[in-house]
Write a structure and sequence with these properties.
Layout (H helix, E strand, L loop, with lengths): L4 H17 L4 H8 L3 H8 L6 H10 L6 H6 L24 H7 L6 H22 L12
């Protein structure tokens, strides 16, 4: 029997909410589960995945194995209990307001945001060398 579309949509929504609550991106989920981002997307859409992949992704979302199937059947996920629950990563906080603004651009992937922050730091360093300043422009300076 095929999964009702509303149950697959609910899985997609609940998995996004679980990631958000833990401060994780979907790239973080994939990395933690040791799978590709495409496997996470497939899993979230209710498509067939290997049992090992299902368990790993469920755990990365903070759910017990079998939670995805429960959601797809109209039920609810079972949160991981006690020591099995992975700790939420600390939020990224930057001293430089420009770097924080880049990090907060959720439309960009984590890799793209980190690339922009690195480029900003390199720019500041080069400008500092041109101006004879050892530390570049410093935190939050306009340039």
């Amino acid at each position: 029997m095929p999964t009702p579309p509303e149950h697959a949509e609910r899985l997609f929504r609940l998995s996004q909410e679980a990631a958000d609550e833990q401060g994780k991106t979907l790239t973080d989920i994939a990395r933690e589960a040791d799978v590709s981002p495409q496997a996470v997307y497939k899993w979230r859409k209710g498509k067939s995945v290997r049992a090992k992949t299902d368990r790993a992704i469920s755990r990365a979302f903070g759910w017990e194995a079998g939670s995805r199937e429960a959601i797809l059947a109209g039920g609810a996920p079972t949160p991981l209990q006690g020591e099995h629950r992975p700790p939420a990563p600390p939020p990224r906080v930057f001293d430089d307001s420009r770097e924080q603004a880049i990090w907060d651009l959720e439309v960009l992937s984590e890799a793209e945001r980190l690339h922009l922050i690195t480029a900003l730091r390199q720019r500041d360093q080069l400008l500092g060398e041109v101006r004879g300043d050892d530390q570049g422009l410093g935190s939050g300076a306009a340039g």
